[in-house]
Amino acid sequence: QVQLVESGGGLVQAGDSLRLSCTASGGTFSRYNMGWFRQAPGREREFVAAISWIGGSTWYVDSVKGRFTISRDNVKNTVYLQMNSLKPEDTAVYYCAGERGSPGLGRRLMRGNEYDYWGQGTQVTVSS
User: Fold this and answer.
1) Nearest C-alpha neighbor of 114 from the set 123, 103, 125, 122
2) pLDDT in tens, 85-105
3) H-helix or E-strand containing 47?
4) Which residues pair with 60 in a beta bridge?
5) I want to staple 36 with a disulfide (CB 3.0 to 4.6 A). Which of 13, 48, 53, 127 is the partner?
6) ∠ CA(21), CA(23), CA(25), 5° rounding?
7) DSSP per position, the chain
8) Beta carbons of 107 and 80 less than 8 angstroms apart
9) DSSP β-ladder status, 58-60 and 68-73
């Protein structure tokens, strides 16, 4: 049973930074494609970033490019989302997701329905 646990959310001011962490247990993390999604109140879940297990390729939604960075530490079974220059519109619950290592998905990792495992979410609130 794979479990994903997010941490690092909080209340910050516009322009501040946060680093989210998602630690996996119960599976072979190094072979998972990993992603971050977010959902704001009244809105649909939105893709934020993804990183592949082969080669560490990354993908980002346009609204966070240049501000957010996804990375992974396969020794610590953890994926990170470094968020800089935060804006009020980044306010949402952020979810970590894992996909069972299908090769060659590429941009399909931007789709939530490609993922097999989800964390419980961590709240990020950015005040103006």
Assistant:
1) 103
2) 999 999 999 999 999 988 889
3) strand 46-51
4) 49
5) 48
6) 175
7) --EEEEE--EEEETT--EEEEEEEESS-GGG-EEEEEEE-TTS--EEEEEE-SSTT-EEE-GGGTTTEEEEEETTTTEEEEEE-S--GGG-EEEEEEEE---TT-GGGGGSGGG-SEE---EEEEEE-
8) no
9) unpaired
Give the number of other Cβ atoms within 10 Å of residue 20's Cβ: 25
- How far CA 17 is from CA of 12, 68, 83, 116, in Å, comes to 8, 9, 5, 29
3-state DSSP assignment of residue 84 = coil
Q: How confident is the model at residue 77 (pLDDT cuts 50, 70, 90)?
A: very high
Instruction: Measure the CA–CA gap between 4 and 50, rounded to whole angstroms.
Output: 15
Q: How far apart are CA 25 and CA 76, in angstroms?
A: 10
- The strand order across the sheet containing 18-25 reads 3-7, 18-25, 78-83, 68-73
Tokens for 28, please give them. 């072979």
73 has which bridge partners?
Answer: 78
Distance of alpha carbon 77 from alpha carbon 67, whole angstroms: 24
